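Following up on my earlier thread - several people asked me to post the actual chain instead of describing it. Fair enough. Here it is, all 232 residues.
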Amino acid sequence: MRVKKQTVLNISCLLLLVAIATKLYAHGVDANTQHFLTANQGVAIGAFLYIGAKHMLTGYDHLLFLVGVIFFLFRVRDVLIYVSLFTLGHSLTLLFGVLQGVHVNSYLIDAIIGLSIVYKAFDNLGGFRQLLGFQPNNKVAVAIFGLFHGFGLATKLQDFALPKANLWKNLLAFNVGVEVGQFVALFFILIALAFWRRSSSFYSFATITNTLLMTGGLILFGYQLTGYFVYS
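Reply from S.P.:
Thanks for posting it. Predicted structure:
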């Protein structure tokens, strides 16, 4: 009975995550943050740290992707390697995109980010082995998708005419904040997974969980693609 209750709780949490992900347009910027970014004219390290952390913690697309990445990683070393690759990827394109003014349509980038969730969940389900007969390199895939996630962050900042003076300082602070938010989110995700893995329901419901992740990614992809054709 206890196992069944725990299973229901775990599935309910995943359903809630997917519901939130399908309802929101992936890490939008709230009104207060918009006002600050528009009005700010100087170096504001603390504020950009906070905005970066908040952005990651409310970035449901990033979090769903990370859940997929670490779902079957049982060793701390493996978690660190994959998260580091993801971090390197999104840090590079975040800094490069904003500092060099490389602008990509936000709807298209967020649609690709939605597909990154689909990719990882499908991989967790063993789809590539069944479909292609071989396993793609997961480390390369996570690093590449990290680049797209970084451009997703960059496009959000580029929507605001941030002053060029000392931009790199604020941008570094924002990036550090993103990593802090990612660390906090991962901490709680790993704790939840560690408890769930002790239950026999983990493997029993792994297929359902990753199917839900894939469904959330597909809906995010559909939302963003619709936004591209309607508003772009």
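The CA atoms of residues 86 and 146 lie 5 Å apart. That should answer part of your original question.
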